Amino acid sequence: MVESPLAAARTGRLYLLDVGRSTYPEHNGRSLTCRSDGSHIQELITNIRSLPNGLAVDTDHQHIYWTNMGIPADNDGSI
Fold it and tell me: For 36-79, how does the pLDDT look when each residue is reduced to its tens digit (9 = 90+)?
């Protein structure tokens, strides 16, 4: 079971992004959470195809936001 952002923050969990470049040309990025020592990794969101590169956790409103770099030549980044 994945904890809510507020519960995770209280327990010291980290949130991180995997851009997914190792799956080129697919770019299957994902959002993860883990304990502060790097153990107990959990996937939150998978198959993010737009190269995720920034992450913010809003514990007050229980939301996670990320930015996508997209393809620079196409000017198609997003939040």
Answer: 899 999 998 888 877 888 888 888 888 888 888 877 788 777 86
CA–CA separation, 36 vs 1, rounded Å? 18
Burial of 59 per CB tally in 10 Å (0-12, 13-18, 19+): middle
Torsion of CA 49, 50, 53, 59, to 10 degrees: -80
pTM of the shown model:
0.71
Largest CA distance in the chain: 41
Cis amide linkage into residue 25, ω under 30° from 0: yes
Q: CA-CA distance, 21 to 59, in Å (whole number)?
A: 29
* Token pair for 28: 């299957």
Cβ–Cβ under 8 Å, residues 35 and 13:
yes
Q: What is the pLDDT of residue 41?
A: 93
